[in-house]
Amino acid sequence: MTSIDGVDPAAADFDGVRQVFHEQPQNLLIDRVSEIEAGVRLTAHKAVTGDMPYPYPGWLLLESWTQAAAILALWRSPGVSEPGPRIALPGAVYDVRFGVPLYPGDMVEHRVTLLRVRAEAVFLTGEARTGGSVALLVGRLVVALRSADIFHTAWWPAGRRLEAGDRAATA
Amino acid sequence: MDVTAATDDQQTATAPHALVSPGAIGAVLVSQNHVTATVRLIDDDPAFSGPLSGCSLLPGGYLIEFTRQAVQEAFCSDRPATLAEVESCRFRRPVLPGETVSIDVSAHAHGNDIRCRAQVSVSGALVATMRLRCQCGAPS
After folding, report:
1. What superfamily does domain A4-150+158-169 belong to in CATH?
2. Among A18, A78, A66, residue whose Cα is nearest residue B53
3. Domain ranges of chain A
4. Which residue segment(s) compose the domain that B122 sits in?
5. So what's the pLDDT on residue B77?
6. Which of residues 106-145 of A touch B (CB under 8 A)?
7. Residue B27's domain is classified under what CATH number?
8. pTM of the model
9. Is a pLDDT exceeding 80 seen at residue A150?
10. Closest partner residue to A21 among B51, B62, B83, by Cβ?
11. Number of structural domains chain B divides into
12. Is the ipTM of this structure higher than 0.95?
């Protein structure tokens, strides 16, 4: 497993994005990261292809944007000093609205802005656009950064909550 | 849309899960403006090959999609339900392979708009709560 710090920011193409997520290609919903300012903002891209249902489902668009947001959250976020491999667990999302529908051939540009970091909860906002039109607005996403090792156990105790995410969501 | 007229009788149906493996079949039970559905997630479902560093956790978007599908099956007849808004969604605990997800939705219709509150649980433990707005019919 590779730390996020092992990714060269200048090579955040498809392979670079896969390296961030250790991702199976069929579930990777980001093609390329074109711009990233650590702890501040990110621009990522996704091509809508004909091998997916269309209009492109809203939940997949939100999932794609969330993956872009996770890249920014994991990218040497200020205030987060825990070493080693980490994952970004979505804890809550608010005020999401869907705009123009997406069809094969559309190029989606994800724009993500990091609002703040509190403990290990990262607050993000942004949008997805295609051809100058808004396809998605995300008011606020809260992700909790965790060591990847905590999930490498046989089971997750029933009722256990994502503590940092819960604290952030009620802030 | 008249939800009451469409859901007078309790009924069972099979919800489509085109993006989940065929093993995950949802049974939908409708009563008035209330719908419950279950989704059984098989151990090797590709949905678990998500962006979480090799950890087998279900991406939260699937829970939103399951809820949308339950709303579509219960309230939109043969028309698709388009996800228009996620007012809020909070994830309380991860969903793991082999677990059966239960979705409990209360919905209110205003024309083609369906506003709903949903609780998602596994074995009685709450995993997510959400407020959504769906629209019956294809997007313009």
Report:
1. Hotdog Thioesterase (3.10.129.10)
2. A18
3. 4-150+158-169
4. 3-136
5. 77
6. none
7. 3.10.129.10
8. 0.80
9. no
10. B51
11. 1
12. no
